[in-house]
Amino acid sequence: MISVEDWAEIRRLHRAEGLPIKEIARQLGLARNTVRAALRSDRPPVYQRPARGSVVDPYEPAIRALLATWPRMPSPAIAQRIDWPYSEGPLKKRLAKIRPEYVGVDPVSRTSYRPGELAQCDLWFPPTKIPVGPGQERILPVLVMAQGYSRFLSATVLPSRQTGDLLSGMWQLITALGRVPKTLVWDREAGIAIKGRVNAPVVAFAGTLATRVQLAPPRDPEFKGIVERANGYLETSFLPGRSFTSPADFAAQLDGWLARANQRTVRSIGGRPVELVDTDYAAMLTLPPVTPAVGLHHRTRLARDHYIRVDTCDYSVDPRVIGRFVEAYTSLTTVTVVCDGEVVARHPRCWAQRQVVNDPAHLAAARVLRREFAARRDAGARAARQHADGHTVVLRALPDYDALFGVEFDPTPDLDSTTDSAEATQS
User: Fold this and answer.
1) Which of 78, 210, 224, 319 is exposed most, by the fewest CB atoms within 10 A?
2) Crossing angle of helices 88-98/60-69, nearest 10°?
């Protein structure tokens, strides 16, 4: 094969110098046909090694038969099925080439976001357990919100993944930001959507904020890849080497870390989130004039034990409203119970499970009511034992009346008389 240097020299001598093919062949010591071939080629010669067969070729029909039924079968399983005797390198190269014919190709395009356009939301479950009460540790969900344009991150820890707590967390992050993104992107979290439709409380929340909640397609985490990558960043950069004493300690450490994380340079946007968030902020919606309905809320009739249950924990209520309907409003930090517009209980929310939270004033009021009830009951019993003119009515035992009237009572049943009575009844 002619070299690139000879090819270039042949073309120079023929076109620039005007030498004939015979003279070029004599000067360079090449065959005339080689010179003619070089003059016919407009591109430099490229060496191509002749294709040789691969050790995979005899096994390819068996590989394709397996991929036709199980297109995602891993290479070690395929090697075992076809009795592959060599290293896995040639087999993996061939699988990378032919597997897309059976699985298909799902290309992902780059997406750009306009300022204020959307924020992606997701729950992150850090594997570290957090102490929440005496002898109790829990893995608590963390609500993460990432702005699409500026990549600004914000997050807060939640006591549960119920709808009311998710709404409270979103409202807390939005008020801290000071503006409302035009779209909130969520996956199909049970507290946000059921059977592909956004829950009614979430729709009401979005309507109050004049925004919308967009659900990601099922089984498509790439749809909200910004917040998914943020979750991985939290797990690899925030969590290692840290320990926590309470949810408040976790939140404080998380806030301090986020302040530094938002100052890093994000390669995809070529800037720092803390510098771009002002542009995001200017294009967002203003906060609503009223606070949206967030938190947990339920209505029930207060039972005799004057406790109301919120998220597995029982909270005491003023016992004077026993038997009346009460409404419990629960935020991330407080449980408030209202009866006919009057607050009858207010407790700090307990993030532990199956706990009883008491207010000493409620316990004292219950003791007073029990004493008053016992006194009223004893007074009623004494009044029942008195005659109309005020003297006490003596209650005697029934055998005393039998002796007074000369009646002899035999506690042993008379079997004959019982049998006669039974036969008479049957007849």
Assistant:
1) 210
2) 50
